[in-house]
Structures are given as C-alpha cells and as structure tokens.
Design a protein that fits this description.
This protein has 18 helices and 20 strands. By secondary structure, the chain is of the alpha+beta class. Bound molecules: adenosine-5'-triphosphate (ATP).
Amino acid sequence: MTSLLSPELTQTFTETGTGPQAAPAWVLTVIWHPDLQRMGEQAVLSPDTPLALNRYQPLFSPLQAAAGWAQPLLHASISRASLTLKLGGDSLTLSPEDERVRAEWQGQALTGPRTVPLPAEGDSAVIQLGKRVLLCLHRAHQLPVTDNPLLLGVSSAMEGLRRQVARVAAAALPVLVRGESGTGKERVAQSLHRLSPWAAGPWVTVNMATLSEGLAPAELFGAARGAYTGAQVARTGLWAQADGGSLFLDEIGDCPAAVQPMLLRVIESGEFRPLGATQPLRSRARLIAATDRPLETSGFNLPLLRRLQTFTLSTPSLRSRREDLGVLARQAWLDTGATPDDLAEMPTELARALCLHDWPGNVRQLEQAMRRLALDHAAGLWPSVEALLGEPLRLPPDPAPPHPTAMTPPPAAPVLAAADDTEPGLPPAEPLAAPRARQSTAGIDRTMLLQALDAHGWQLKEAAEALGVSRPSIYNLMARWLDTPPAESLAAEQLTPLLARPDATLAAMARQLQVPREALRRRLRALGLPRPPDDTDTDTDTME
Ligand SMILES: Nc1ncnc2c1ncn2[C@@H]1O[C@H](COP(=O)(O)OP(=O)(O)OP(=O)(O)O)[C@@H](O)[C@H]1O
C-alpha cells in the first residue's frame, strides 16, 4: 500500500489542537473504502482554505496521527478532478470541478455546486466519492490518539471516553455508566476493570433486571446455612465473590426497590450482612453500575443514585458518532470469521445504507447486521438493504435539504471521463454527453423509476433519457429506491428456473429481477448460462 509521510498533516493536527478545550475542527473520516484498512482514517478541513478532494488529495491519516503517516484516498473510481469543499460560517459549499466528479451529499447526487447547512452539533453528513468510497463529515473536539481494543472508535466522543476510563479506572469509588442500549456500557465497565489495580481480581457481573425482589438479597449478599427453606449450605453472594475485583451491576435501574437501600449501605460502609447471618461481612469489590434509564425521574433511590454517580461516564449513541461506523463494521465483520476481501466486494448500495442508517439499536444492531451479512454472503448472496438492516433504512433527519447555490455552474463543454478513473475490472466509464436541461432526481419516486425501467426493458440509457436525468443519476435513483441485490450476486439457481420458462426474454428476466439488462447479460455469461432464446438486441449499456 502506498504511504506518504505527511508533515503537513501532522502540522494541521497540531494547529487544530487535540485537547477538549480546542475549538472543534471539521474532519472527514473514511467510513467506507474497499481497502478496509483505510476505515477510520481522517483529514482535517482548514477553516480558511478550501479543500480539494480527489483521488490524490488530501492525505488521510490513521488513528495514530502522531505517527505522521498519511495517504490519499487513491481508489480508482475517484476522479483526479476535485470536489472542492469550502467552509463558510455555518454552511459548506461543495463544488465538483467538472462532470468527471462523481459525488453524493447525504445520498443525493451532486451535479453542480451546492451550499448546504453544516450539520448541527452531534450530527454529521455522509459524502460519497467515486463509486465505492464514503466519507463522514463531522466535528472533532479532539483527535484520536489513544487506543483501547474494547472501545473502538475515532470520534472525539470515543477518544474522550477512553481517556476518562483510563483516568477513573484506578479510583476506589463507584462508577455509573449511562447510555442508550447497545452503546457499549458493558465494554466500558470491562475496560474499567482491566485498567484498574484490581484487574487480577474477579470480574463479577449480574443483570439486575433478572433478579426478583425475593431472590436479589441472597444473590447479592449471600445467605447463611438454613437462612431460608432449601438453604442446606451457606451461599456466597456476588458481593463476596467480587472481593478484590469488580462487581458490575448491569441495568441498575431495574434493581428491586427493597434492595436499593441495602446497596447504599454496602457502598457507604463496605459492609453487608448475608441473609440469616449474625455478623456483617466486608468486601473490597469495586462497584460499577450501568443503566439506560433516567434514574432521576423513575423513582430510583436518590441517595443511592448520588453515591453511584461519584463518577459518571456516558456512552454516545452510534448515530452521534457516525464517523466510527467504518471501524466498528469492519471489526464486527472480522469477528464473524469472514475475510476482509469478501467485505471489500460488498455492493455500494449496502455500504451506503450502513453509513446513512440512524442505528436506533446502536453498535449491537450494527453487529447483528454484519452477522446477517456474513451469513448471507457465505450462502453466495448479498442481502437487500432492508434484510441487512433488519428494518427499513432510517435516514437521519435532514433539517434543511441541500439547495443549489447561485455559483457558477460546472463547465458547459462535454467532458470525457478518463479511462483510468474506472475501477479495474469494470467497464470504462462512458463519455458523458453534453450537458442539457436535466430534471432533478428529487421529484422521481419509486413508481416513476420502475415505470421508466420497465418501459425500456431495464436498459438504463433509455430509461435515463425518458426520465430526463443523467446516467449516473439513474444509478443513484436505483440505489435509493430499489433494494434488490445486484446482478453480480445472482446465483445460477436463481437464474435457471427463469431461463427455463418458454417465454423467457432478457428484458422479462431483468424486469423480474430488477437489475439492468446489460448487467444481467454479463452475469449469465460469467456463469456460463445460455442467453434467453429471443435475446437479439445489441444494447451497449455498460454502466452499472
Ligand atoms: N466502542 C465499541 N467498540 C467495539 N465494540 C463495541 C463498542 N461499543 C459496543 N460494542 C459492541 O456492541 C455490543 C453492545 O455492547 P454492550 O453490551 O457493551 O452495550 P450496552 O450499552 O451494555 O447494552 P445494554 O444496555 O443493552 O446492555 C457488544 O457486542 C459490544 O461488543
């Protein structure tokens, strides 16, 4: 892999500042790249100088920015012509240099300069460059320099969390971890234990939601022999088991009300009394609790809450740190045992959906999606977007949709896409036609798209003309409205029954499978399957 030493980048990082007090910088983070190693690499935008984004610039740096290594995006589908990003107060202007630049802002194709509102605090935006690379534009209050294999992420929020965990780990005081479900609260608790002076001691966990009011005291504090019916021997409680280590009380908000004062006592004095015992016991367990509940308003014991929140750590939602998607998705994929190469081949519409989804179930939901993906892929299929996500694609709210600027439109002369702007193995990009009045894709819904495609036998050139949009736009429309797997993922078993039909034609099959006709023809050829008998057309639609 090409690597370039980048003193300029190191300089930029230094100037921008890495401390929490520094003014936030706008950063581009790679959240999808066919070279999976590139996920999480970052480039900082200067507030004063427009950033030219193309195949060879700027330089993106990996997590350990201090190493000073950086490299451009390099992917062959990204043009040498630039998409220029210019920050201006609370807006951003994106200007494609010419028609060679293929780019999308928040899933919408950029066909000319646009000025868009910058994402609000805690929000971010997704920029697609070329066919396969997705970047997240976000704020950074501090750049990532620390590492913790349990707490992955290049966002400021994760960098801050890793630092807090490292700072708090050694304190012999309770810690409360708060955050939405699936955001990694248990991971934070594990990290606190591993980094603490008690790391060699036991790590004991209990989910308070699973303890009934009757059983909880014995479970937590133990019981003397004969303390209750069936207690033939003395029982060691979790608190005693965790002596010299850490006790993690997950879902503390579900702790039975009667048990809450008992917890308060043990936190305050370190002493507890097993059920039926005459003497109290002492434990030096460090307590970590976690919740996704608003404990202040849910009737929780407030003195206990105050003791628990001696230190409070918060885990951020995944949608508020979209820049971490790439590194998290890559790790979740590798955890399934699948190879990086397989993921690199994933169709862009799936990658785009992963990057744009708002992930209400946070990292856990992302992990489930990656497991589904690995399973389907092992069976020779790429799932639909909906099957991948396990729910319909939920786009982040768009407070103000992009609007065109009054800036100069792109050059009027027809421009040839350079052959080396095309991914190796894919057909060369076609010369772009001279610009003409084109309809915006915004007004084209799924029905209109399908009608045009069906009417033209799934030949994209004709369908695009009928809709009055450019050919790249029809791909964007297909990615937006259709969630059928791409032609390259079709298996022989899916195609043979359709070929066996007496009325089989290429157009009919393309319509049924919702794939471009030419892509289907290539797939049949690749699988060594016959063309349908009446396939005599000679269309040369090569883009997909
Ligand atoms: N920063 C992270 N890096 C890597 N994996 C993560 C991270 N955060 C969460 N995960 C993964 O996401 C999943 C959910 O994490 P975890 O169980 O810690 O979340 P939680 O907030 O405790 O969830 P719940 O509230 O539902 O118990 C786990 O499988 C964990 O491996």
